[in-house]
Each structure stands twice: as structure tokens, then as C-alpha cells.
Amino acid sequence: MHSTLPVPVMQATDRLFLELYVPAGRARTTKRTRAMLLPVPGFIVREVSLTNHVSITMLESGSTEREHLEALRDAVWFSHEFMALGYGEIAREVFVRASDALTQCEQEARTTGVYRVAGPGLTDLRTVIALLDVQFGSARTYEYRDTMLKLYRAQGVTADAERKRA
């Protein structure tokens, strides 16, 4: 499945993962270790899940901070990519509606200054977040790393440049 969703920005948890699993200067040549065959570490799964659930709650009630929107955009993108790897199954339209809800939220925030998601888009976002919780619990560390590096390439950023920025 080819991704057509907007490319999100990198979150703090992603930078921590980068430090642990992508050696400096070797982002494209890093070989898989035995540890990379294991599921994504629990502390990363919990951190991502907490960030996503807090963000959706904040956008439901209305937030003035863009970081919540970006965290959910990141979540939708990762869930879509993990589904393409065979983790979970929901209709593609759910991803599109969730992404559209975030885009609408961003457009409305330009005039109101408040980031808010409501209606069917909120339901779709909750569905995607619930799927991502399951996906992260099942995905292998190397799949998370490879997906993150794919995100960097889509953003036009190298892993070493992102490490220096953090």
C-alpha cells in the first residue's frame, strides 16, 4: 500500500529511539541485530500510546498547542505504514477521514487559534489510535526503525541531521 497521507514531524520519542537503534553515520547501512527482531521496547510503546491518547483528548476539548495535532498526524502516518506491513486491518477510508479531520483542524486553528477535532473525524482518529496501540505492541523493532527512516526520507531529513537537531 503506497502512503498518500501527509508526512508528520518527528516526535521526542522517535529521537530517543533513533539514539538507541540507529548508530550515528550508519542510518542506511545498519544491520539488524537480534535485539531488533524483538518487539518494540515497552517504554516506547507506552510513551507513544500515552502521547497519542493525551493528544486526542486535548484536541477533543480544544487546545492552543500545535504539538497535539502533530502527534496525531504522526500516529495516523505510522499506523498506515504498519498496516501496509501486515499489522492490523481497517479500511483505508478511515485513515483518509482521520487525516482529513486533522487537516480541517489545522485550517480552523489558523482563524480561531484553537485546535479542535469533533464529529466523525474524532471517531476515526480514535479507531486509528486504538489500532496503533495494537500495532506497536506487535511490530518488530527493525520495522519501527525502518518506518522511521522512511519518514525521515519523506521529510528530506537524514537521521544524522535529526540527531544533531535534537
Notes on the protein architecture:
The chain is mostly helical and 166 residues long. It has one domain. Helix content is 67%, strand content 0%. The protein has seven helices and no strands. The chain has helices spanning 12-21, 42-61, 66-84, 92-112, 120-138, 141-155, 159-165. Helix 3 runs antiparallel to helix 4 (92-112). It is globular. Mean pLDDT is 81; it is low at 1-10.
What's the helix and strand layout?
Layout: H1 12-21, H2 42-61, H3 66-84, H4 92-112, H5 120-138, H6 141-155, H7 159-165
Helix pairs in contact: 1-6, 2-3, 2-5, 3-4, 3-5, 4-5
Attribute tags:
single chain, 166 residues, mainly alpha, 7 helices, globular, disordered N terminus
pLDDT < 50 runs, ≥5 residues: 1-10
Question: In sequence order, what are the helices and strands, one letter per element?
Answer: HHHHHHH
Q: What count of structural domains?
A: 1
* SS strand fraction: under 5%
Beginning-to-end CA distance, first to last residue:
31 Å
Radius of gyration: 16 Å
Tally of DSSP β-strands: 0
Q: Overall pLDDT, averaged?
A: 81
If helices are DSSP runs of H or I spanning 4 or more residues, what is the number of helices? 7
> What helical percentage do the residues reach?
55-70%
Class from secondary-structure proportions: mainly alpha
Shape: globular
How would you characterize the largest beta sheet? Answer: none
